[in-house]
Task: structure prediction
Amino acid sequence: MVALSLITLATLLGSALANPVPVPSFDVEIPAANASEVDKRQAAEGVYLLNCGPPSNPNTYHPVVYCPDISNCGRIPSNNNLCYGPTKWETSTGSCRFPTGVTFTWNIVANAQEFPYFAVVGSGNNGRPRPFTIRKDNQGVFYRDGQGYDCRAIYVAV
Result:
């Protein structure tokens, strides 16, 4: 009986080696990044709406930062690229006038913080022909100001 089982096992093993079962392919296309993140990185210019403050009060003040090249942004902006917004971004219409004379206006839906990161939550304009699409950002630290306060990206307009 044992000899018969060994012969059967050897036959099965020989058959498997002679006719291997095809291995299923696990090739899956994985996108390099979320599409909205790619849009954000590829935009030429952008505007960030930030909240700054110490951990005990992260909403102490609210800078608006213009970035001529959004791929090279993320540090304390020059005075010409900085103005200050309201205490709440989610307003029917908000605006901020930069020292250069350019005014950036925005509309952000009231419940924007309920949306997932990088979702479209509004629109913006700086008087140029191309409007801006505003997305909820991930609240990462954009820069640390001179007082040591973290300035976090709440929204990005590209």
About this structure: The chain has two helices and nine strands. Confidence is low (pLDDT under 50) at residues 1-17, 19-41.
